[in-house]
Amino acid sequence: MQDINIEIKNIPKTDAIGVFGTGPFAVAFKKSCGELFKYIGEHNIQHGAFLGFFYDNPCVVPENELKSAAAVKLTTEQLVSLKLTGDEPIKHIIWEEGEYAMFIHKGPYEKLHQTYEYFFKTWLPKSNRVPSEKPSIEQYLNDCTKVAPEELITEIYIKLN
């Protein structure tokens, strides 16, 4: 794998709504996406970027226990106007402010693990940085239903201590 450009970015607190899932990422996340976009469509919610929150390391946590959430960005005003009670299938998710390593994966989602491996096994040991225990966040820059898998672009954010 070629070197990946990694930038350090300060990210402001960002509100999102999402659907949580547990299990293999490929299965649970896909199911959460379906539930999220069904809810958004039924409630005519205008939203920002599509996000994925991944709470566990798949190299350490058993596959059936992996936690993730499919989410979309909202403004604070949009979030308030939804008047969520907690009984809905969607939940408020906060992308915490802070310093993040950001890098881009281009290509199929099935190969994202290669980009993560480069970050954790090559870049991170040389960087003298320490990742936090917060979830990794993926921001999907194009639509997997409209572009070929080789053309998918995903920004990956890892919060740093």
Automatic annotation (TrEMBL):
SMART domains cross-referenced by the UniProt entry: AraC_E_bind
SUPFAM superfamilies named among the record's database cross-references: Probable bacterial effector-binding domain
Gene3D superfamilies per record: Regulatory factor, effector binding domain (3.20.80.10)
Superkingdom as given in the UniProt entry: Eukaryota
Listed InterPro entries: AraC_E-bd (IPR010499), GyrI-like (IPR029442), Reg_factor_effector_dom_sf (IPR011256), SmbC-like (IPR050908)
Domain spans labelled AraC effector-binding: 4-161
Pfam families named among the record's database cross-references: GyrI-like
Protein name: AraC effector-binding domain-containing protein
Source organism per UniProt: Heterostelium pallidum (strain ATCC 26659 / Pp 5 / PN500)
Taxonomic lineage: Eukaryota, Amoebozoa, Evosea, Eumycetozoa, Dictyostelia
